[in-house]
Amino acid sequence: MSVLVYTENWDGVFKKLSFELVSYAAKVAEMMGTSLTAVSIGDVADVELNKLGAYGASKIVKIEGNTALDNQVYTSILAQVANAEGATVVVISHNNTGKAIAPRLSVKLKAAVGAGLIKLPVSTEPFTVSKKVFSGKAAANVVLKTDMKILTLSQNSFEVIETGGSATIESFSAEVGEAKTIVKDVQKQTGKILLSDAEIVVSGGRGLKSADNWGVIEDLADLLGAATACSRPVSDEGWRPHEEHTGQTGKIIAPNLYFAVGISGAIQHMAGISSSKCIVAINNDADAPVFENADYGIVGDALKVLPALSEAIKEAKNK
Amino acid sequence: MKVLVCLGNVPDTTTKVKFGDGTALDKTGVQWIINPWDELALTRAMELKEDSGNSVSSVTIVTVGEKNAEPTMRKALAIGADDAIRVDTVATDAFGVASQIAEAVKDKGFDIILSGIESSDYNGSMVGGMLAEMLDVPSVSSVSGISISGDNVDITRDIDGGREQVSVATPFVAVVQKGIAKEPRIAAMRGIMMARKKPLVVVPAAAVETLTDFIAFELPASKPPCKLVDADNVAELVDLLQNEAKVL
Ligand SMILES: Cc1cc2nc3c(=O)[nH]c(=O)nc-3n(C[C@H](O)[C@H](O)[C@H](O)COP(=O)(O)OP(=O)(O)OC[C@H]3O[C@@H](n4cnc5c(N)ncnc54)[C@H](O)[C@@H]3O)c2cc1C
Ligand SMILES: Nc1ncnc2c1ncn2[C@@H]1O[C@H](COP(=O)(O)O)[C@@H](O)[C@H]1O
């Protein structure tokens, strides 16, 4: 019996989400009185792999060589490791990669999935998880009925916990089938903070009036190391790229801090961001629905408030 | 090529959800809609069928659900789907839903199966990938673009940190998201008239397993009211974010 966690690297370097996953999986292993094994696919140097030990993995299984994601190949590799390790729980991120692998692995291992979790299981006997349903409007307790379970963890929902431990590294030679998905071209997003990875997001709505006014959003985002986002009409108008649109039909994110600037707070917008830990609304209409869902708010003109806010943050940082 | 769209029937996003005794959704007064991503998948399927540059010959929809899902399915037929299959059972567990779809379509020769990235009720993001594994066909996830020329299928998918152009041979499952179509298509009067006569086949549920049980639903504790800060005193907001919320 053990807990397995699938870690993701980007060009050989672990993403923060991998440390979140390992921290989370270590806690699950603790709840179950067992140990944690981390799996890494791709070429990652041992010094980098060793970092996982500090977050609670006692063993690291590496499968070198495979880089392009093929859902069937990755699923097969993970299933082989899970069986070899006698894993009863497999923890995977609820990101693009995780959503690609977890459902296939579920069928292959006959493992129930607790999908898109934001906290630790409610109990291990029976194995029960709490998950959000109805786009964040409610939560459900779900019993995972199978011996083997898969938990997918939403990004930014669990704190990274350093335990200071260390791990042993083992190579695993998996039987790797032929990839069916042929990657013809990759456009890596560079230099910019990914919306899904960002801990802070500054988001603008139609209240900003035009694309030319986005400087105030970008200045604040740069200052905070934040990603930028927008409401749907803003991306429909072409003021911002489509990848930035959050909400029911856009990206679903859960940063620590979300600034909703000139956004009315329509339910379809909030569906994408309601899991944010802290929501700050800036809107010149005191009756805008966004204030009902925000933790903090300023009633005022975004074009005046944002520059002042950026100044105040600079000052606070210099103290 | 035959296209299948997995179409969920879900409460409208603006629905105020209630749970009666806490074990199931109280359906009174709920407006049902096509799951938003499935609506985009259907829209793209129709665009592909209309484009003479490829060989898409038919678009079928499949829904796992009870009879009350039929108005939503008729809407999909009105938008343009050629025919519909309803597997007659309650849908909750993703593995159960995927198993039902797999049983209903496995011998029907679909070349491209589209599912949405997430259902807006159970929010699992699981059914499409599970179905692909059950049918033993490739799956491409987080798909934001799909085009066909002749028999060649080109797909754009999001990865965590970028975007890729991939190709895959049919049959396969594409799990689609935003970007796949610009705006969901709305049914025209003519479509609504025609939809009444299109085939909607009801098949009995197969004996399949479920792997999860939804045992209790709960509304979130109501949020404390928003703390308002004066526009002339933004420093106070910075202080609150640093020292009270501890997020800066
Ligand atoms: C099926 C469906 C799906 C949808 N999906 C999404 C989705 O995924 N994401 C999404 O965002 N929307 C979605 N929508 C649209 C949604 O209903 C709203 O129309 C949209 O979110 C509104 O965008 P907004 O808040 O930017 O604009 P508006 O509603 O126009 O609000 C602008 C706000 O800015 C404020 N304002 C104006 N001037 C200033 C100023 N100078 N300073 C500060 N504030 C100012 C106004 O008071 C107002 O509150 C969807 C709608 C439907 C029907
Ligand atoms: N009851 C259902 N009937 C048909 N398709 C469904 C059903 N539930 C989910 N799906 C499909 O699976 C996708 C993902 O759903 P889920 O795994 O529940 O988030 C949806 O976008 C639909 O395409």
Written account of the structure:
The complex is a heterodimer of chains A (319) and B (248). With 319 residues, chain A is an alpha/beta fold. In chain A, 29% of the residues lie in helices and 28% in strands. In chain A, the strands form four sheets. Chain A has a seven-stranded parallel β-sheet, with helices on both faces. In chain A, α5 links the parallel β14 and β15. In chain A, α5 (215-224) runs parallel beside α9 (302-318). With 248 residues, chain B is an alpha/beta fold. In chain B, 26% of the residues lie in helices and 30% in strands. Chain B is built from six helices and 13 strands. In chain B, α2 (70-79) crosses α5 (189-195) and α3 (94-105) packs across α4. The longest helix of chain B has 15 residues, at 36-50. The chains are: A alpha/beta (319), B alpha/beta (248). The interface between A and B is large, with 96 and 82 residues. The complex binds flavin-adenine dinucleotide and adenosine monophosphate (AMP). Adenosine monophosphate binds next to α1, β4, α3, β6 and α4 of chain B.
Q: What's the layout of helices and strands?
A:
The complex is a heterodimer of chains A (319) and B (248).
Chain A: E1 2-7, E2 9-10, E3 13-14, H1 16-32, E4 36-41, H2 46-50, E5 59-63, H3 71-85, E6 87-93, H4 96-109, E7 112-117, E8 123-124, E9 127-133, E10 138-144, E11 149-153, E12 168-171, E13 182-188, E14 200-204, H5 215-224, E15 227-230, H6 232-236, E16 257-261, H7 267-270, E17 278-283, H8 290-293, E18 296-299, H9 302-318
Helix pairs in contact in A: 3-4, 5-9
Chain B: E1 2-6, E2 9-11, E3 32-34, H1 36-50, E4 58-65, H2 70-79, E5 83-88, H3 94-105, E6 112-116, H4 127-135, E7 139-149, E8 152-159, E9 162-167, E10 172-176, H5 189-195, E11 200-204, E12 212-218, E13 227-229, H6 234-244
Parallel strand pairs in B: 1-4, 1-6, 4-5, 5-11, 6-10, 7-10
Antiparallel strand pairs in B: 2-3, 7-8, 8-9
The site of adenosine monophosphate (AMP) has 24 residues of chain B, from helix 1, strand 4, helix 3, strand 6 and helix 4.
